[in-house]
Input
Amino acid sequence: MSLAALLANRPADALEAFKARCWARALLVHEGVMDFYEAIDGLQNAAVASGLIERVGQDEIQHLMSEAFGEELPELQTGVADIVRRLELADPRDAWLHTGAAPPPESVRNSEFPDLPRLYKTSPSTIAAFNQVIGTGDVARIDAWLADHPKDAAFLLKLLEGRKNA
Output
C-alpha cells in the first residue's frame, strides 16, 4: 500500500486538525473573507465539540488560536474586557463591581432589566385622530380632545403650528 493510501485511511488527529483550522481561519480573516469574531467563535465551538477542551485545556486552545492569529487575540481580549466593564458600569445591577459602592440587594442584582425611563412618542393613530378633530373646526372640541391627551398635547400643537406656518 502506498504512503498516500495509508495517510488517506488514517484518521486525522483532532488537535492537528484544529491547528490547521486555526491557520486557515486566520488566513480567511487576514484576506477579509471572514469576520474575526466569526472565526474565533467557530474555532471555540469546534474545540468544544471535538472534546479538545477536555483533552488539552482551554489555555492551550487559546494559545493555538493566538499563534495562528498573531497578536490580534490578546488585543481583542483587552478590548472585550473594556467593553464589558463599560456595559457593567452602565447597568445599575452591576456598576458596584467597578465603583466600590455597596452591591444592590440580591433582588435587584438578579432582576430583569431595571425600569428605565422611556421616551414617549405620539402614535400615528393619535395623530390621525387629532387631524379628524381639527377637521371639525370646533375649537371647544379640539381643546377638550387635547385635555384628554395630555402626553400628546404639546407635540400635536407643534404639528398644528407647523401646518399654519407652511
Q: What stands out?
A: The chain has two domains: 11-99, 124-165. Residues 124-165 form one domain. The radius of gyration is 30 Å. Residues 3-7 have pLDDT under 50 and may be disordered.
